[in-house]
Structure formats: C-alpha cells, structure tokens
Amino acid sequence: MSDRRAARTGVRRLPGVVTALLATTALVLAGCTNNESSESGRPSASAAAVKVDKVDAIAALVPADIRGSGQLAIGVNVPYQPNEFKDPSGKIIGYDVDLMDAVAKVLGLTPVYKEADFDKIIPAIQQGTYNVGMSSFTDSKEREKQVDFVTYYNAGIQWAQPAGGSIDPNNACGKRVAVQSTTVEDTDEVPAKSKACTDAGKPAIEKVKFDSQDEAVNALVLGKVDAMSADSPVTAYAIKRSSGKLVAAGPVFDSAPYGYPVKKGSPLAPALQKAVQYLIDNGQYRTIASNWGVDSGSVATSAINGAARACLPIMDC
C-alpha cells in the first residue's frame, strides 16, 4: 500500500562516478522522463483524446468559492512515474494528471497544479492553500483523522531487484533497500521487515532513503543498493523502462486505495467522488488507465474515506 511520495527535489548528481556509470544514469533518467509511446512522455492515446464534458448536476456540488474561481488548486509532488512526472518541456504529465484533468472537466473547473514537497501537501490542504492533493496518496485510517479522501485506484507494494538477483522481500535481512523518503515503504513497510530481522537475531535491513523515486531507481540500476521498494505501479513502470536491467522481487502485496485528500468535512469530497464515479461508469476512467498501462489497479467504485485498515498487516499495531 503505499503512500507514495515524499519531499521530492531535483535528482542528485553523483560526483566522481566513472564515465560508464554516468552514461547508465543518463539512460535511466531519460527513461524516467519519457514514456516509450511518444517523445513528449505522454502515451500515444492520451487523455486529451478522451472526450469529457462538464456535468452540471455534479459541478453544482462544488463549493461556491471554488466554483466561483473556476479553478481547482491541486498540490502535487513530482516525479513519481507513471503517476505524475514531467515531460522534456517541463509539463507535468502522468496517469494521475490525465485522470484529474478529466475529473476537473466534469466539475467545470480548470486544474492548476502546484508543486510542493510531499509531506507539506496535506498540511497545506488543511490550511486552505490547496483544494485537493494529487500525489498517489494512500488512504489510511490515520490520515483520515487529518483530511477526507476520495478513492480512485488500488495499489500495493512491490520490490524490484537487478536482473539475476534473488532478493526475498520477506527475508532481506542485511540487504540495502532503496525507498523514497516519507512513503509508506520508508515509514512503515521496510522498518517493519527490518524489525522482524532483528527480532530473529538477524542483521537489520539497511534502508537507503532518497528524496525522489528517480534517485532510488538510479541507485538500484547502478548497484548502489540490493533492492527497491515502491508502489506497485511505480515499480512496474521502473522495470518496464529499465531495458531488462531490473526485475520484480516477489509479487504485489498489501494493496490499499489511492485517494485525493481534501479538507476534513469539505463538500468538495462528494463532488470529486461523483465525478470519479461518473468517469468509471462511462468508461473514460478505464481508457485513461489503459493508456498508461495501469489497468490492474482500476476500481469499480470511488468512495469517501475508503481505508480498509489502520496499518499494514505486517506491522504489530
């Protein structure tokens, strides 16, 4: 289940790396920036080709101040391929973006994406800086105490490893594992697995944190770590873009819903929920998911505060 995101800054450069490794890094970063279907990073059949119109009955549910502005202020943290990242021109694209663009059309609003550190988005929503967050947030019982969530996708955790590796996520004691800072993998999943190691008298997992997911992927390709833990769509995309350098380390586990966070009690939540459900029922949602190759996490129903549990089942809580 993942929580997806962290404070993301620009990719850190690694001084003193030999030419061959720098070339490899450049290839990896290029892969992270571009989707194979087009030079712009957007799939050949983008959401722009999905015709979505305003639905007056749903748009009428939008709070008056937001409706009056005509804009939906969205806090987002990039990069997190394939959900939200930048194309070579600097435009924010991805599955989440295409879906939110469609949601905004249903609501009769213009989406305005505002970049922020991941861990600052929810506080900014509480303060009214953003109307909604869109950054692959996991809807959890703990987070529902701070904000309301509108669910739109189902994701799990999946590990990746170099091709030919033999990492077992449930027995990775003593291994170096890359994660993105402040994600569920960083705060909950890998620490719980490490504690199980030390409780059994085995070496702890060495968690290696990175500000961006790109850096975590690069570290794995360059052999700086033994494995990487991330959300299932992120891991699948990294593997697909690695040209055979990376493979999955075990199956997807601990699935949980992604959700859009909004201010607690805001009438924007039911408006968003009905907009997402409208797109699901009319097939545009599935088309957008298919365009990005993330169909496996598609849902049939959008819910408000749909967290199934308070914490990962691997945790003692």
From TrEMBL:
<dbReference type="InterPro" id="IPR018313">
    <property type="entry name" value="SBP_3_CS"/>
</dbReference>
<comment type="similarity">
    <text>Belongs to the bacterial solute-binding protein 3 family.</text>
</comment>
<dbReference type="Pfam" id="PF00497">
    <property type="entry name" value="SBP_bac_3"/>
</dbReference>
<feature type="domain" description="Solute-binding protein family 3/N-terminal">
    <location>
        <begin position="71"/>
        <end position="295"/>
    </location>
</feature>
<protein>
    <submittedName>
        <fullName>ABC transporter substrate-binding protein</fullName>
    </submittedName>
</protein>
<keyword id="KW-0732">Signal</keyword>
<dbReference type="InterPro" id="IPR001638">
    <property type="entry name" value="Solute-binding_3/MltF_N"/>
</dbReference>
